[in-house]
Amino acid sequence: MHAGCRRIWPYTNRPKRGNNLALSGGAVKYHLFSTTLGRAIAVVTDNGLSGLGFADSDAELVDYARQITHAKSHLIETSLSDYVAEIGGWLNEPDYSVDIPLDLQGTPFQRLVWQGICTIPCGLILTYTELAQQIGKPNAVRAVASACGANPVALLVPCHRVVRRDGGLGGYRWGLARKRWLLERERQ
Is 159 one of the catalytic residues? Predict the structure, then answer.
């Protein structure tokens, strides 16, 4: 597993707790901040980072936090300086070994895909087909692409490193311009 993901993948053998973070115990906190990719949000439960996203407006980001947590009134805005510092470290140096726990919510298949994504070294890419083969699900290419799109933690589970078979960028929840920038940044 890639160094950046190995340190943030604490739940590999943890049983699935469901998809409702607001009900998984404790408050759901978030912090809005600026990055080289635009406005960002970090969403954190008592167990770790459960969301990291980018958008052009804070309203879009708060809507994203509500979407991934299924919460309307359980979100608490607060300072998350340790998380923001680690994310900033990654943006400054894409092969940076992030030292924060993740609390990702997803199906067992999504988790398998996200774990597979974490094996892609910085500066390299895989196609959706190659990733499907790597995780032992060669006939699930569309499902792999869907799981990439459902990844709640941009950058740290680097789904931007997965592209179409023809070399096209494919999709990216945070916009193709951001995906292109990330891939170019990692090739340097």
Answer: yes
